[in-house]
Amino acid sequence: xxxxxxxxxxxxxxxxxxxxxxxxxxxxxxxxxxxxxxxxxxxxxxxxxxxxxxxxxxxxxxxxxxxxxxxxxxxxxxxxxxxxxxxxxxxxxxxxxxxxxxxxxxxxxxxxxxxxxxxxxxxxxxxxxxxxxxxxxxxxxxxxxxxxxxxxxxxxxxxxxxxxxxxxxxxxxxxxxxxxxxxxxxxxxxxxxxxxxxxxxxxxxxxxxxxxxxxxxxxxxxxxxxxxxxxxxxxxxxx
Length: 239
Known about the structure:
By secondary structure, the chain is an alpha/beta fold. The protein has a domain at 1-155: Ribonuclease Inhibitor (Leucine-rich repeat, LRR (right-handed beta-alpha superhelix)), CATH 3.80.10. It has helices at residues 2-10, 13-21, 92-96, 113-116, 141-148, 171-193, 198-238; strands at residues 31-33, 56-58, 78-80, 102-104, 127-129, 154-155. The longest helix is centred in the C-terminal third of the chain and has 41 residues, at 198-238. Pfam families: LRR_9.
């Protein structure tokens, strides 16, 4: 098992993408996780603009040095690039991923604010992570990043007032994804637990049972009266 896992992790990015497709077409894919595979000379390879519905892309620890070969992904909302060797070239993101809301650059070779300055062109960017990058050691790092990128709500998981983002603000991809699933689950539960008309039938059955009980009470009352009358009649005869 360990050898097959090792082979899977060392697989080059192009083959990994083919494997992740699982007989789907690129336009069917909304989430793509390529963590720990091998990039080709530090470049993204095998990912094309055919992935037009892609909303979540994760390329953690794949040896990237550049994002220049990222295709046009208009619907991409969350991009995970942590634990790579990226040191610049972020200006392409505004063109390639214009609707990006969450970007994780933790563990890259980002040393100064000028490297992330191009991100100000990403008007929808809500959350940025730079953990374990040298830039975080600069004086007044947080204040300066929020000034540089005024559209940001969260930096390294916290807002300007040091309030933590809810669940690391990980609802990006999931939020639309899983509203639909919840709706389906609700519908299934409704269908299973109470199909139309079941409640009326149950109420009708309860009414019938109550009527039967009342009839039994009435009958037992009549039988009791008959017995009393017979007893009284026999006593009169004795007299």
